[in-house]
Design goal:
Elements lengths: L4 H12 L16 H8 L13 H6 L5 H19 L9 H9 L4 H12 L6 H18 L1 H10 L1 H4 L8 H9 L4 H11 L4 H18 L1 H11 L3 H13 L4 H17 L4 H10 L7 H4 L1 H11 L3 H13 L6 H11 L6 H14 L1 H10 L4 H14 L4 H8 L6 H12 L6 H10 L4
Helix pairs in contact: 4-5, 6-7, 7-8, 7-10, 8-10, 10-12, 11-12, 12-13, 12-14, 13-14, 13-15, 14-16, 19-21, 20-21, 21-22, 21-23, 22-23, 23-24, 23-25
Length: 429
């Protein structure tokens, strides 16, 4: 008897607790680095304000010596950068201060950020930009508090074009320890910050997958995502697997999730679109290691077809000939032709001479025939005579005729006479 995957995960979560690790990436590119350094380094910490909470007021008089010195140094550095006419790339003092800020506790850091956001001597856009440099540091320590500050001062923070980026960063950090709480925050705030929510979901799924793919799949089930969003989420889960061990674990979780949701059309569509991405990093590990994993994974014919299809479409590794020969041997007659052709097309675009040399020495078999068809289509725009010469080495029949038709269909629109002559020459109907 099968139990829903969500129940299984909840039991595991309650019994063992959750611990999370994820390497956060920036979601969107910021402005030019030097400009950011100039602006951020102008940060100053105000002498105080009347809007602090009681806990924050208790912290201020008790700031330790290091924190006081850091605040003063931050102010001095800001003034120095503000008055500078030329930015010295070798001056890393701003970054060193940032590193020291990462060493203070979250309550003191909250005071720093609140001071900035309530400093009436600064324009709102500057307050927003400066606070957004520090909120990611707070997010690593206390993401829930960082999000609370974001919401409290949103009327100021929203002036920065990068305001929405802090939400994914905070939620990604929160998901390290409590992914379900992060998802709940998304559900409660989706209408208020719709764009940031989509980015945040992907980060949460990536975080969950790197720790435990089963929990990541349970989140997909919990959110009842449509096919498009399920595809995006599952893509995060599958491509998070970088090692063979990770792939084994993710593959087992994927199969269980797929089987448990076999009647869900939305999930079925996403499954079909994403399974092939198990090949995402196979080219990086090399042919021998990659094929060893594929063989050990005992992929079904459908699974193997999806993996090879995705691997072939954009292959940029150093061993195309081995992959082409391997795929030709793994599939029943003609069933792997499309994968061979896709990979050979990529190889031809990367190094047409090497691809042509392989063709010249390859034994006569169905794999070579598929490669010839792909090669002819790829080189025809540049060397039509050679393309036709290669195609004529194929025996008369469907494969050769279909390839001539494909070339004819893709003939340059500005050469109708040539297209008609080609049609007549090769009996294309």
């Amino acid at each position: 008897m099968k139990f829903p995957i969500t129940i299984t995960i909840i039991i595991l979560a309650v019994a063992g607790g959750l611990s999370w690790q994820v390497e956060m990436r920036l979601i969107a590119a910021r402005a030019d680095e030097n400009i950011l350094i100039l602006e951020a380094s102008r940060l100053g910490v105000s002498g105080g304000n009347d809007d602090l909470t009681r806990s924050e007021k208790r912290v201020r008089p008790n700031l330790d010596t290091e924190a006081k010195e850091l605040a003063a140094e931050y102010d001095r550095e800001a003034k120095k950068w503000e008055s500078a006419t030329i930015i010295d790339d070798a001056d890393d003092s701003y970054f060193k201060i940032h590193q020291r800020l990462e060493g203070i506790d979250s309550l003191r850091l909250k005071v720093f950020i609140t001071d900035i956001l309530t400093d009436k001597s600064l324009l709102e856009i500057m307050r927003a930009e400066r606070a957004l440099k520090l909120l990611p540091i707070l997010a690593k320590k206390d993401p829930e508090t960082a999000l609370a500050l974001f919401r409290e001062f949103y009327t100021t923070i929203k002036f920065s074009p990068g305001a929405g980026n802090i939400i994914p960063e905070c939620l990604g950090a929160w998901a390290k320890n409590d992914p379900f709480a992060a998802v709940k925050w998304i559900e409660e705030n989706a209408l208020e910050y719709p764009t940031a929510m989509e980015q945040s979901q992907d980060i949460i799924f990536r975080s969950a997958a790197e720790k435990d793919p089963m929990i990541a799949f349970s989140l997909i089930e919990h959110l009842q995502l449509n096919s498009e969003k399920a595809y995006s989420a599952m893509l995060m889960v599958v491509t998070a697997a970088k090692t063979h061990e990770d792939r084994d674990i993710t593959l087992a979780a994927f199969r269980e999730f797929r089987d448990a949701n076999e009647d869900n059309k939305e999930i079925a569509q996403a499954v079909d679109q994403t399974f092939g991405y198990f090949s995402w990093s196979l080219a990086e590990v090399g042919f021998d290691a990659a094929t060893k994993w594929i063989d050990g994974a005992k992929l079904s014919p459908w699974e193997l077809d999806r993996v090879c299809a995705r691997l072939s479409l954009n292959y940029d590794g150093d061993e195309p000939a081995q992959w082409i020969e391997w795929m030709g041997a793994r599939f029943p007659l003609a069933q792997g032709d499309s994968h061979v052709m896709d990979m050979f097309r990529c190889w031809t675009h990367q190094d047409y001479e090497a691809a042509g040399n392989w063709l010249a020495s390859a034994p006569e078999n169905p794999t070579k025939k598929a490669a010839i068809r792909s090669y002819a289509q790829a080189i025809f725009p540049h060397d039509p005579a050679a393309a036709v010469q290669w195609l004529m080495t194929l025996p008369p029949g469907r494969d050769r005729d279909e390839t001539f038709k494909t070339i004819h269909m893709n003939w340059p629109k500005d050469d109708p006479a040539g297209k008609e002559a080609f049609k007549q020459q090769h009996g294309i109907k």
